[in-house]
Amino acid sequence: MRSSLTRRGLLAAGSGLAAAALPALSGCSSLAAADSDPDTLVVHTQLGTTAPGSPTYLAALDRFRKENPGLKVKNLINGDDLGQVYETSRLARKEADVVMVNLYDKTLAWTDVDATVDVGPYLDRWGLRDRVLPTALQAWTDARGRVRAFPYFATNWPVAYNRALLDRAGVDAVPTTGDQLIAAARKLRAKGIAPVTVGGNDWTGQKLLAQIIQTYLTADEARHAYSTGDFGGRGVRDGIDYFVALRDAGVFADKAQGLTSDLMTTQFNTQTAAIQSAMSSALAKVPEEVARHTEVGGWPLGPGAAHERPTIIRAFTLIGFWISPNGVRKIEHVEKFLRFMYRPDTVSRFIRESGRDMALRTDTVSTDFPLVAAAQRLGGDVSQVLLPDVYVPPAATQPLITATSTSFTRGTGAAKVRALLEAAYRSA
User: Which positions make up the signal peptide (predicted)?
Assistant: First the structure.
């Protein structure tokens, strides 16, 4: 695996690379992260615009400022390009003190190349380790025992079924097998209703494809396949065959290969599609009039599956607090900020106000977000499969999404799907 961010590049202080980055930084406020003022904490985040939890985060930031009047907080906001923006600022030693982002793609390499630091010692020094769910702590810990970031947001990723649309089409029960899903899709199409909507052209399609393939994989087998790009095992081949059978039977919405996550949620929320694989942040956005007749469950199983119950994804790496080398220089301010964000009252507000699942211990439930709460209660009714993000080499991430889009195109055979997935790893 080779990251696009190298130790040599990051350590090239004063080199032509760092110097070349500086003009770009000076002309862009979102990049001019480092503040020389020792009493200013710089936070780089994906929260602050339309991302789920943004209003709660901004309100929390206001409370933190009021509680710490001598400490200024500079908030930098980026969307999906946060990783690239942060890496550019780090090359110029202008990076933020704290970064709020998930463990995925570029960020997998940050601790290895000293773009961020091991936060394990701070978890212990500040007495915050026991606030973290053990599973979350494990997910954020790398092979060398380093904790990449302070865990914060988690997610349940079940399947949402619009029972009103299923009833209209004459589908008596939520499908739990592939045959039942195919039969339901036929009935839904006969009524002009799209069956399963999915963003086949982005990360949502990639995750659903991985989930379906894992129908026939144990956790260890899935970990091997997505770490190495070896999709030749019998279980993987069975999973790909199952996906192709569902796709060619019309289970997915028309032209799913061109849909995005936004189009997917729009189709479900406007009731033009009956089923979607939806992480908890998407479940929180389902309108009340749709949520009241929506049921959450797992992805239906094929014959001879490796699981006993329909599957969902659970993940604890959605957002964490990473500490940068600049942040170490202001560690007393970072400590105040993270203690505040880990406080039970702050955590509870994200759950109550934004419907977020958390990677921290809490007794608060999402009473105003019934589908999020329902997903939390699924328990033994479903089986859990792996989120592949932490195993896929960064260089393979985008090629896998491209391979996914082709895979959702009708007529692409199972052998071609397998070849596409394996080809995504060749540059990794």
Answer: 1-34
Two structure tokens written together for 168 = 């209209």
7-153+316-365 and 159-277+393-423 have identical folds: yes
Cβ atoms within 10 A of the Cβ of 363, count? 7
- 150-206: pLDDT as tens digits: 999 998 999 999 999 999 999 999 999 999 999 999 999 999 999 999 999 999 999
DSSP state of 301: B
What one-letter code names the amino acid at 134?
Answer: P
Contact 55, 47 (CB under 8 A): no
Domain boundaries defined on the chain: 7-153+316-365, 159-277+393-423
Strands (E), 278-310: 294-297
Q: How far apart are CA 49 and CA 77, in angstroms?
A: 8
Do residues 184 and 255 make contact, with C-beta atoms less than 8 angstroms apart? no
CATH architecture type of domain 159-277+393-423:
3-Layer(aba) Sandwich (3.40)
User: In whole angstroms, what is the distance from residue 385 CA to residue 3 CA?
Assistant: 26
* Crossing angle of helices 344-354 and 54-67, rounded to 10°: 150
> pLDDT per residue over 222-281, tens digit each?
999 999 999 999 999 999 999 999 999 999 999 999 999 999 999 999 999 999 999 988
pLDDT digits (tens, 9 = 90+) for 79-122: 888 999 999 999 999 999 999 999 988 898 999 999 999 999 99
Q: Are 392 and 229 in contact (CB under 8 A)?
A: no
Q: How many CB atoms lie within 10 A of CB 409?
A: 15
Contact in structure between 181 and 187 (CB atoms under 8 Å):
no
What kind and span of H or E run contains 287? Answer: none
User: Of the candidates 187, 160, 182, which has an alpha carbon nearest to the alpha carbon of residue 171?
Assistant: 187
Cα separation, 192 vs 419, in Å, equals: 34
Q: What is the C-alpha to C-alpha distance for residues 282 and 241, in angstroms, rounded to an integer?
A: 28
**Domain 7-153+316-365, CATH:** 3.40.190.10
Q: Are 46 and 53 in contact (CB under 8 A)?
A: no
Q: How far apart are the first and last CA of the chain?
A: 5
